[in-house]
Amino acid sequence: MANINPQEWLEFGQKFHGHKCPAMPMGLRVGAAAMNKLGVDRAKDGQILAFVDLGEDHCATCYADGLQVIMGTTFGKGNIKKTHKGKWAVTVVDKATGKAVRVTPKAEAMLANKQTDFFKEYREKGIPASQVPDEVVEPLVKKVMSAPDEMLINISKVFDYKLEPKKDSFNGFVCEECGEMTVEEYGRIKDGKHVCIDCAAK
User: CA 4 to CA 159: how far, in whole Å?
Assistant: First the structure.
């Protein structure tokens, strides 16, 4: 049974993420709660899959880096996907069992964060998170990391999730125009030559 401690990932998470903020630690807390509920370990390969309801260009997308760090659901492994709903819920699926759980930060916790100087006096005025004084942001990080689960997050019951089977492609070719490696399924034919999407559009 998984017993993931988010505190153990905070230092690495901040190093990976690049600055201190409350959203990345929230991702650590949510990811840990999801794995502990499912009884799964951090993904070394694609053992778990995360569907995160984030969109683009809105506040607190830093949250996804916390999820990536603690769950091993990464952009490179392709086992984290955005659903572009503009929310912070994440559905985490254990591929071995087909079981899933949906975890979301509580609205009250997120609203409380938005009332702090970190947001009001700095982030909403366009100041990058890395330039917010430590004494402003550190209490927020500590609060997110130390609050009990029931104050911070909503966790669903475990439910069945049907995944569509997928197969990774190992086939590739060298584009006859630009000379760059291209995955076969993304290839195009242009004037009888095998080319990439970029060269096909020229």
Answer: 21
